[in-house]
Amino acid sequence: MEEVMTLLRKIQMELNEQKIMIQKCAENVTERTTENVNKILEEKLQILDGKYEQLKGRVEYQEKRLYFLEKEARQRNIVFYGIEESEKSYFDLETAIIDFIDNNFSKKLERRDVQAAKRLGKKGEDLIQYL
């Protein structure tokens, strides 16, 4: 009977050792899996960071470009008040503005010098813009 008890204790000890070994293996597997997942996520995050920086650079470039385009568009504007409204078309409007500048300023203009001409406001307000 004593021998049976000794054998049972020995089996119990072996089972405990196997249980501890299984727990350690499970911990190792969990640890390696966590490391692999973290590594994959870190790689994806680095890719996204790179794309973010690239897009950030593009946005900054586009903002600068837009600023300069708006600035350039504003540089070519001249507004005249009180020019007679006898024009029927944009061609007549350009002619009226060129004649006005020729008569009132010491600058001789040609049609190619006028980029665009349009009136501002409702007809009758005597407000014409030369661009």
Mean pLDDT: 85
Q: State the helical fraction.
A: 55-70%
Order of helices and strands: HEHEE
CA distance, first residue to last residue: 114 Å
Strands of the biggest beta sheet: in what spatial order? 1-3-2
Proportion in β-strands: 5-15%
Category from helices, strands and their pairing: mainly alpha
Organism: Operophtera brumata (Winter moth)
Protein name: Endonuclease-reverse transcriptase
Keywords: Endonuclease, Hydrolase, Nuclease, Nucleotidyltransferase, RNA-directed DNA polymerase, Transferase
GO molecular function, one term: RNA-directed DNA polymerase activity
Characterise this structure.
It is a single chain. This protein has helices at 2-75, 90-104, and strands spanning 78-81, 117-119, 127-130. The chain is mostly helical. The protein has a domain at 77-130. The protein has a three-stranded antiparallel β-sheet with strand order 1-3-2, with helices on one face. The chain starts with a helix and ends with a strand. The relative contact order is 0.08. It comes from Operophtera brumata.
List keywords for this structure.
8% strand, rod-shaped, 2 helices, mainly alpha, 131 residues, 68% helix, 3 strands
SSE order and pairing:
Blueprint: H1 2-75, E1 78-81, H2 90-104, E2 117-119, E3 127-130
Brief sketch in words of this structure:
Keywords: Endonuclease, Hydrolase, Nuclease, Nucleotidyltransferase, RNA-directed DNA polymerase, Transferase. This protein has helices at 2-75, 90-104, and strands spanning 78-81, 117-119, 127-130.
